[in-house]
Design a protein that fits this description.
Layout (H helix, E strand, L loop, with lengths): L7 E5 L4 H12 L3 E6 L2 H13 L5 E5 L5 H15 L4 E4 L18 H26 L4 E6 L14 H19 L4 E8 L5 H7 L6 H10 L9 H12 L10 E4 L9
Helix pairs in contact: 1-2, 1-8, 3-4, 4-5
Length: 261
C-alpha cells in the first residue's frame, strides 16, 4: 500500500523546486495534493506533471502566504474537495527580496520585512489555519526551514533569522498539537539544487560552476542536495512511519552540521 494512501495534503510553494518535488512524491504515494503557489504557471505545471505521471488527485490554487485569507482559503478548499486535511507542508519561501546578498549592515528594512513576511509570517498563517482543521482527527504540519536557521551564514542576514524563527515556531506547534495528535517537524536542507540557490549563485563573484563547487565543498558528502533528497525526508515525516516523531529540526545536509571535515 502507498505510504500516503487516502491522505490529503496542501503544499505551498509547490510551483517549483522543493515544493514541486514534494507534491510529485506525495501524489505518487497516494495522496490527494492541493498545489499552492503565487506562481500560477508553475503551479499548473506541477499539477500537469502529476496527472501525466498517472498519480493521485491534484489541483492548483493560487496562494500568497502573506495573505491570511489566502491561507485560510487553501485549507478550506482542501477540506471541501476531499473532505479533510491530513498534511500541511508550509514550504513557500524566498531567499531574498532583491536577489542581492543580505549582509546585515547593508540590508534594507523593506527587504528584511519582506523575507520575514514570507518565510515566517507565511508559515505561521498556514500552520494556524491547518491546525484548526487538523485538530479534528490529527495530522502533520511540515515546515521547510534550513540549516541556515541552525547556524549563522554570511550574506543571509534575513533568510537565516527567518528560518530560525520557523524552527522555534515548529517546536511550539509540536507542543500545542500533541494533545490533538498533530505532529510538527521542520525540514532543514543545506544548499540544494533549486531556483533559489540558482539566484544565490548568480550573486557570487565566480562563474556558476565555480560558485556551485564552492558551495559543494562546504558539504562533507561533496555535492549539493537535490529536491528529491528533501522530498524523501518530507515523505517519511508525513507518513505514519514517523508517528512518534514531533518537534524535530530534521537536517538534510550531507553531514554539513556534523562539524568541520
Amino acid at each position: 500500500m502507498a505510504r500516503l494512501d487516502g491522505k490529503v495534503a496542501v503544499i505551498t510553494g509547490a510551483g517549483s523546486g522543493l515544493g514541486r518535488a514534494m507534491a510529485m512524491r506525495f501524489a505518487a504515494e497516494g495522496a490527494a495534493v492541493l498545489v499552492a503557489d503565487v506562481d500560477e504557471a508553475g503551479g499548473q505545471e506541477t499539477v500537469a506533471r502529476i496527472v501525466q505521471a498517472g498519480h493521485g488527485a491534484a489541483a492548483f490554487r493560487r496562494v500568497d502566504v502573506t495573505d491570511e485569507d489566502d491561507c485560510a482559503g487553501v485549507v478550506a478548499e482542501a477540506v471541501e474537495r476531499w473532505g479533510k486535511l491530513d498534511i500541511m507542508a508550509a514550504n513557500a519561501g524566498i531567499g531574498g527580496a532583491t536577489g542581492k546578498p543580505m549582509h546585515i549592515s547593508l540590508l534594507d528594512k523593506a527587504d528584511w520585512e519582506r523575507v520575514l513576511a514570507v518565510n515566517l509570517t507565511g508559515v505561521f498563517l498556514c500552520a494556524k489555519h491547518a491546525f484548526r482543521a487538523l485538530r479534528r482527527a490529527g495530522g502533520v504540519i511540515l515546515i521547510t526551514a534550513s540549516v541556515a536557521g541552525l547556524e549563522g551564514t554570511p550574506a543571509l542576514g534575513a533568510y537565516g533569522p527567518s528560518k530560525a524563527g520557523a524552527i522555534q515556531l515548529m517546536k511550539t506547534l509540536a507542543l500545542e498539537g500533541a494533545r490533538f495528535n498533530i505532529r510538527c517537524n521542520a525540514l532543514c536542507p543545506v544548499w540544494t539544487d533549486t531556483p533559489m540557490v540558482d539566484a544565490f549563485v548568480d550573486t557570487m563573484r565566480a562563474t556558476p560552476e565555480e560558485a556551485r563547487a564552492r558551495l559543494a565543498a562546504s558539504i562533507p558528502l561533496g555535492r549539493l542536495g537535490n529536491p528529491d533528497d528533501v522530498a524523501s525526508a518530507a515523505l517519511y515525516l508525513a507518513s505514519d512511519e514517523a508517528s512518534f516523531i514531533s518537534g524535530v529540526a530534521f537536517s538534510i545536509d550531507g553531514g554539513h552540521l556534523a562539524g568541520r571535515g
